[in-house]
Design goal:
The protein is 39% helix and 15% strand. The chain has 367 residues and is of the alpha/beta class. The protein is globular, with a radius of gyration of 21 Å.
């Protein structure tokens, strides 16, 4: 016969299991980018319902639209919001503008689960389209961060920025990843600021484009993250191109923030980090992949089968981490919808997981 203490023990055990299951469920590393360059898309309220129906727990947006924030109230969906490049100069030059921005988009929305603010997207001094914004990124980050601190949200909302893979001058082998010589001076103080505030560093990582531009050197199965297509690189086995690209970003970041933790060959020295205690890991910011995906039409190797294969495999691998950084990789799939007004090549308008009416192109399990 069970005693009262036995009942208590089993109830406690069941409660613990339920909590564990809940934590595992909500800790999924995948989010989806919500772009709005289309004239036939669902409303923000309908989009939030779409996220809920498909158990998508993280959203990245490219502007802090109030209709999106209103729709997210009480949803629990984690929000990663970008400040548009065109607005960076104003925030950099006027601390009051940063205070107003934080009031309008953070303080006024206490029931929105805002996690990250990215000041700019793919700004680079080496890119003619965005170079004019580069000198304003760090001052804007400081002003927004100070406003977040004044709002009492510094422990909850992290301020960072996002780069593209074009900022790297070398990405292979992954351990030799390094930023371009004309980009490193721009990113070094930004990374120092990010490390000092405990924010992650964000990068847009697209194996699809690496494959397209290097078809003679890269196997498509490796680019689609399929098992059995990995390669050996300097004694480390890379299952897929996504892992290799993320590790290249880590190596480039590590080379700027903590040169003393590198060996003479340029490889990250984990032995030195252990000797330094937690210093190495504290100085190495987490990498968040803010965009990755595969187009379903419009260009070379862009078809429904490849898009589904890539995104399915991506969901399966992000929890494992890379060979050199075996921790979960917080990752956002680009994009929620095909966007018929997005500029650029035809592939740019066909990265969506869903048609504009909300119907899925193919089934994905975000759990």
């Amino acid at each position: 016969m069970a005693t009262k203490s036995n009942h208590f023990f089993f109830a406690f055990l069941i409660f613990g299991l339920l909590v564990t299951i809940s934590l595992d469920f909500t800790a999924a590393e995948i989010g989806v980018c919500y772009g709005r360059n289309g004239n036939n898309l669902l409303s923000p309220a309908q989009v939030v319902d779409l996220y809920k129906r498909h158990s998508i727990k993280r959203m990245r947006t490219y502007d802090p639209d109030n209709a999106i924030l209103d729709a997210l109230r009480g949803s629990g969906i984690e929000l990663n919001v970008a400040i548009t490049n065109q607005y960076i100069e104003r925030l950099a030059n006027d601390a009051n503008s940063a205070n107003d921005w934080v009031r309008d988009h953070v303080i006024n929305y206490p029931d929105v689960n805002l996690k990250y603010i990215s000041v700019g997207n793919e700004v680079s001094p080496a890119d003619s389209a965005t170079s004019r914004y580069a000198r304003f990124v760090l001052p804007a980050m400081r002003n927004v961060y100070n406003a977040i601190c004044r709002a009492g949200r510094a422990g909850q909302v992290k301020v960072t920025t996002t780069v593209g893979m074009s900022t790297l001058g070398n990405s292979f082998p992954p351990s030799d990843g390094a930023f371009r010589d004309d980009v490193a001076p721009y990113l070094r103080p930004i990374l120092s600021f990010i490390v000092s505030t405990g924010a992650p560093f964000m990068a847009n990582v697209y194996p699809y484009f690496s494959y397209i531009y290097n078809k003679g050197q890269i196997d498509i199965g490796y680019a689609l993250l399929e098992q059995g297509h990995g390669i050996q690189v300097n004694g480390e086995y890379y299952d897929n191109l996504f892992y290799a690209m993320v590790d290249a970003v880590y190596a480039a970041v590590e080379r700027l923030v903590e040169p003393s933790l590198k060996t003479t060959s340029g490889m990250y020295n984990h032995t030195s980090e252990k000797k330094a205690g937690r210093k190495g890991s504290q100085r190495r910011p987490k990498i968040v992949v803010t965009e990755t995906g595969h187009p379903s039409r419009g260009g070379d190797s862009a078809n429904m089968y490849n898009a589904k294969t890539y995104n399915e495999n991506l969901i399966d691998i992000v929890d494992d981490g890379t060979p050199r950084h075996p921790e979960p990789i917080e990752t956002y799939i680009f994009a929620l919808f095909d966007e018929n007004e997005k500029p650029g090549a035809e592939t740019e308008r066909n990265f969506g997981l869903f048609y504009p009416n909300g119907q899925p192109k193919y089934n994905l399990n975000f759990n």
